[in-house]
User: What shape does this take?
Amino acid sequence: MKTKWILTTIFALALSVSGMAKNVTISKEQMMDKIKGAWAGQVIGCTYGGPTEFRWQGMMIPDTIAIKYNDHCIKWHYDHDMGLYDDLYMDLCFLDVMHREGIDAPVRSHADAFANAGFMLWHANQAARYNILQGVYPPESGHWLNNPHADDIDYQIEADYAGIITPGMPNEASRISDKIGHIMNYGDGWYGGVFVGAMYSTAYFCNDVETVVSEALKTIPSRSRFYKCIADVIRWHKQYPTDWKRTWRLVQGRYSDVQGCPDGVMRPFNIDAVINSAYIVIGLLYGEGDFAKTLEISTRCGQDSDCNPASAGGVLGCMMGYSKIPECWMKNLYEVEDRNFAYTDISLNKAYDYSLSMATELVVRNGGRDLGGDLLVKVQKPKAVRFEQSFPGMKPIETFEGEDLESQKPIEFTGCGITVAGSWEGKAEDYVARIEIILDGKQYKIMEFPTKFHDRCAELCWIYGLEQGKHTLSFKHLNPNKDITIWCDNIVIYGKTK
Assistant: This one.
């Protein structure tokens, strides 16, 4: 068995480097070991980086700050802070729909499950949920015209399932991600999920981290900003192979500007898929296949520093296999494998079984064979998905804070777009404000703004694609409530790029 494993891995590495599709035989036992390693690595990485999430923005986590992985820490989060694992329960939301309705379940089933689930969402996911609850379904729910967070990290952190169930088949992972990833993202935000899924697919039959990253990048259009960033990380790693901090600084200098997410425009906060994917890759390349080193570097890059080591740990866990992850990391995982994740009826043990079943089906669908105890996989040569770009021809030129809705004066601006973040305070938690958005003296739309966080969007309005010039935006509260105050928070003005 050991000899067969080694020969399969060496052969798979050779075919990955050549980029040619080949047939590879792998036992279901080996396949399950890699599936379990992928899920385990994701949970461990998320737990390890969890306490640092977004505490370091626009800066590396200093070496003087200890990052701890204490005994029973995963169990503690299961008991007290299950929301940490949004990476996992989002994956499982889609996996559950596929388990119940089949791998080809319609995107509307995924969208409805996602929008009506009990868990909290943020950024692109939150905007997509709002859109769906308002009757705007995918792919429109994730499109940048309807979602100010289209380039955010959301699908990137929840695309692991797509790669886990498509061993050696990155194009099949991309096909799945095309449908589900556009629920909440578009352009670079979507590419983050495509890329992560492709890394998992490739990691099944390749034990070289650089090859996994380079092959997965072939699924991304070369003209995209996402591709250029990851290609730069690969190039800088070759130039400075022992200095990940230098590569981090180069990434920060070239790719830290936020164009979409209103929370990050002209601020240190950055939840864009581009830079956070770069941090995953920095962790993988400079980690050199060492599990602890990979998690530490991807975490110390900062920003979304639980999601990034989760993805890096999952990819490396898939490559290594569950049985090869060092015991010091695994002992905490054993305590929770039979416990369901929050908002789901799925435990890790169920996720392992579901994933093997789906992977087997997809192997056969894509030209392979189920040989009983083995699978014959037709490994795919990665192909680039179509080109998409969010917020084309525009850039943020100004930000400022607004006032409460009743006091807010008309906003006069010169540009081609505007976003206005919103919040509320008071007692009416189930109230739905109806706010008329008035642009240049005419009704633009009526925005429903629920005070219930589960249902609302983070923005009072977003308007893109205007003719460059002078505009006036104002609000009319159609059903004011004396028990609450609605605030116009951060306002971002966009202008045309030259």
Summary: The chain has 18 helices and eleven strands. The longest strand covers residues 484-496.
